[in-house]
Amino acid sequence: MAAVLAQGLRKTYGKKTALDGFDLEVAEGTVCGLLGPNGAGKTTAVRILTTLLRPDGGRAEVAGFDVAARPRLVRRSIGLVGQHAAVDEVLTGTQNLELFGRLYHLDARAARARAAELLDTFGLEHPGPVKEYSGGMRRRLDLAASMILSPPVLFLDEPTTGLDPRSRGEVWKAVRALVSTGTTVLLTTQYLEEADQLADRVSVIDTGRVVAEGTPGELKSKLGGDRLDVVVRDAARLSEAAGIVGRVAAAPAEVDQDTRHVSAPVVERVQALTEVLAAFSAADIEAEDIALRRPTLDEVFLSLTAA
Amino acid sequence: MTELTMDPPFTRLRWALADGWSVARRDLIHWIAQPMTIVFGVAFPVVIALAFGYLFGGAVDVPDGADYFAFLMPGMYGMTMLFGLGATMVAVTTDLSRGVTDRFRSMPMAPSAVLIGRAVADLLNSVLVLAGMLACGFAVGWRPASLGGALGAVGLLLWLRFALLWAGMYLGLVAKDPGAVTAIQTLEFPIGFLSNAFVAPGTMPGWLGAVSEWNPLSSTVAAARELFGNPGWGGDSWVAQHAVTMAIVWPLAITAVFFVLSVRLYQRLDR
Ligand SMILES: Nc1ncnc2c1ncn2[C@@H]1O[C@H](COP(=O)(O)OP(=O)(O)OP(=O)(O)O)[C@@H](O)[C@H]1O
Ligand SMILES: [Mg+2]
Q1: Given A49, B89, B115, B179, which is the most exposed site by the fewest CB atoms within 10 A?
Q2: How far is the CA of A35 from the centre of ligand 2 (A)?
Q3: Is the Cβ pair B103, A75 closer than 8 Å?
Q4: Does ligand 1 have an atom closer than 6 angstroms to the CB of A77?
Q5: CB under 8 Å to A239, separation ≥6 — which residues?
Q6: Where are chain A's structural domains?
Q7: Is any ligand 1 atom within 6 A of the Cβ of residue A38?
Q8: Strand, coil or helix: what is A3?
Q9: Which of the listed residues A24, A42, A52 should we mutate to test ligand 1's pocket, taking the one with most ligand atoms within 8 A of CB?
Q10: Residue A297 has what pLDDT?
Q11: For chain A, what is the radius of gyration of the CA atoms?
């Protein structure tokens, strides 16, 4: 049985269509990455699946319960970490978790014990109020709050947007720990790397519908994998350089005259780099910079939506 | 909406109250962590009372040659209740914009607890602030005539606050954004000036005087003056003659309207 199932979800705000036939299926115990740019409809999808928003059309099931007909049973089965950390700034971490524990109907003693346990698990033993927390700690507290009942399905809406790399790593670690306990996770992100790091399967969403779906590996090979970037010193040799890169790469190279930049997708990364370097030195073309990098989200979308 | 596991009504009510108290307790922890918010909550009306009392006290003709403070303080108690309107709106919009309301709504708690908790916390806050104001009244020489009357007056003041609570919740749910609250808060003073809190409606131009007399705040303030045994402006109109009745009826009407509106709007946050 799918832990999360969405079929043809539609939602409009006035004239603005946020979701336009959104389909998704997340198998139990897996992590699904919902990858999309600003305004793609990620938050709208999460809000519908967590009973916060009513769809205009389509249907959805979470943990086997229809979100429209059985919202209370859905709420009992989910944890939600929204796009903005929804914890109380004035309360301490303990007080926040105890409050939510009581609202999950734990008795006072159980709520206190669970709070202590979660603060320990998430490394949050700071005695002061949450407003003294770093962005990463706040996110982890948010995560802890949604895990009080260890729900079978967890929704994370852009859990690391706005965090520095170290805090991002901390949140990833926390999410991985949850996943290892068998929790099904649906996480939205704008970062390909994040989906790559955490997700078993990725759905790419653009303007309210899923435009591509697969494992991170499948999606990447569809895109031709990584990109090779070269900055050529002499602008006069730019087209020659583009020719060399294009021969080695999986597709014709893109050229930017102003920045003397040549870029192309490559499949065998290291081999491509070596070949290009060898060909450059044979042709006596001087490179100012040469690098392998992951495709940016822009490039993912360009190639997915153009196809 | 039907659920497979429908709790019996009594259990649901018990959880609504228990969850409501959990939500309200969050505010109590705020007050302990930030006592200055309560201090400012009291200081603001106190400063206004002192400013009006000492600046305009000499210029206002009070019936029976009484001290202006004896007349002003019940008006200020009423104003303090009115300021609660903005306070409730700020609390509602802050939770909405920070995602706290969404977190509550995504949890299996009683949905009504969010509103019940807000009501309980704000009412308790007003009790504290009103107590501070009463102490200030004593300090400037205001005195109630009898304890029984004073309790009745305090009851009517809090009854008005209770009504404004639902109005504040509704307006907060409509505004959604804390920035929009300021606009409404600046309206609190005109509402106060268009009442009998500071001056007699009789001294205002005819139609303004009528508006002031029918202002719900005027009924509560006039009733409080009557029950406290403080001097009032009297007035011959029906509404002025039936201040205590109207101080019960007005908040009841406001509550009836805004309770229904705010509960409906809260239930429709998923639209
Ligand atoms: N309450 C609303 N009223 C009107 N339009 C809205 C509302 N919420 C979202 N939208 C619009 O719906 C579209 C989808 O929004 P949504 O928030 O779901 O996108 P998102 O993928 O979460 O974006 P982001 O990465 O910026 O969080 C956007 O164009 C947005 O402007
Ligand atoms: Mg979003």
Answers
A1: B179
A2: 11
A3: no
A4: no
A5: A255
A6: 2-214, 224-295
A7: yes
A8: strand
A9: A42
A10: 61
A11: 23
Report the 10 Å Cβ neighbour count for A17: 17
Under the banding of pLDDT at 50, 70 and 90, the label for residue B7 is low
pTM above 0.95, yes or no: no
pLDDT in tens, B96-144: 999 999 999 999 999 999 999 999 999 999 999 999 999 999 999 999 9
Instruction: Please report the atom of ligand 1 found closest to the CA of residue A47.
Output: 18
Please tell me the total number of residues recorded for chain B in this structure.
Answer: 271
Whole-number Å distance between alpha carbons of B199 and B233: 8
- Superfamily of structural domain A2-214: P-loop containing nucleotide triphosphate hydrolases (3.40.50.300)
* Of residues B66, B80, B83, B79, the one with CA closest to residue B233: B66
Which residues 33-72 in chain A show a CB within 8 A of chain B? 47, 50-54, 69-72
A43 touches ligand 1 (CB under 6 Å): yes
Report the C-alpha gap between A194 and A176 in whole angstroms. 12
Non-local (6+) Cβ contacts of A180 within 8 A are none
> A102 contacts in B (CB within 8 Å)?
18-19, 22
Q: Residues of A with CB below 8 A from B113's CB?
A: 103
Tokens 């305004």 locate to A39
* DSSP codes of every residue in A9-23: EEEEETTEEEEEEEE
Each residue's pLDDT tens digit, B223-266: 999 999 998 877 788 888 899 999 999 999 999 999 999 999 99
Smallest CA–CA distance from B267 into chain A, residue = A52
Mutate one of B2, B19, B106, B116 to test the A interface: name it (highest A CB count within 10 A). B106
Residues 6+ apart with CB under 8 A from B202: B209, B233, B235
Ligand 1 mean position, distance from CA A42 (Å): 8
Among B80, B114, B117, which residue's Cα sits nearest to residue B96?
B114
- Nearest one of A242, A201, A270, A259 to A32, comparing CA atoms: A201
Q: Which residue is associated with the tokens 């003056």?
A: B225
Q: A224-295, which class in CATH?
A: alpha beta
Rounded to 10 degrees, what is the CA torsion of B80, B82, B87, B89? 180
* Residue found under tokens 């202002």: B215
Query: Are A52 and B270 an interchain contact pair (Cβ–Cβ within 8 Å)?
Result: yes
Q: How far is A235 from chain B (nearest CA, A)?
A: 51
Residue A78 three-state SS? strand
The answer to whether B167 and B261 have CB atoms below 8 angstroms apart is no
The amino acid at B164: L
The predicted model gives B24-53 an average pLDDT of 92
Distance A160 CA to ligand 2 centre (A): 12
SS (H, E, C) A195-259: HHHHCCEEEEEECCEEEEEECHHHHHHHHCCCEEEEEECCHHHHHHHHHHHHHHCCCCCEEECCC
Which of B4, B34, B99 is opposite residue A73, by nearest beta carbon? Answer: B4
**ipTM of the predicted assembly exceeds 0.90:** no
CB A30 within 8 A of CB A201: yes
| Distance separating alpha carbons of residues B42 and B24, to the nearest angstrom | 20
- CA A4 to CA A299: how far, in whole Å? 29
